[in-house]
Amino acid sequence: MSSAELDEMIKALSHPVRRDILNWLKQPERFFADQQHPLSFGVCAGMIDQKAGLSQSTISAHLATLQRAGFISSKKVGQWNFFTRNEAVIQQFLTRLNEQL
């Protein structure tokens, strides 16, 4: 992971909504138990919109930022997009951050 990539990841975490999304995705069964689709797909973007209480376009922008940073992955099933945490990248980020500080 380069310094530029680390900086991009830190910037992705600078917004509280993005940190909330990562927290929610850590325990989807707790935060999205009422999702109609299996949580094994991930969490549907629409469920994240509802949980955050923000517009679809705003949440899409936050999800795109997290995805560019590598913190989340998406999977399209039919017309829906599902999101999951990328635990390997998160762990790599935490290790690198620990080394830097």
From TrEMBL:
InterPro entries: ArsR-like_HTH, HTH_ArsR_DNA-bd_dom, HTH_MetalResp_TranReg, WH-like_DNA-bd_sf, WH_DNA-bd_sf
Assigned keywords, A-Z: DNA-binding, Transcription, Transcription regulation
GO molecular function: DNA binding; DNA-binding transcription factor activity
Coiled coil: none
All residue ranges annotated as the HTH arsR-type domain in the record: 1-101
Keyword Endoplasmic reticulum in record: no
Keyword Transcription regulation found: yes
Name this polypeptide is given: Transcriptional regulator, ArsR family
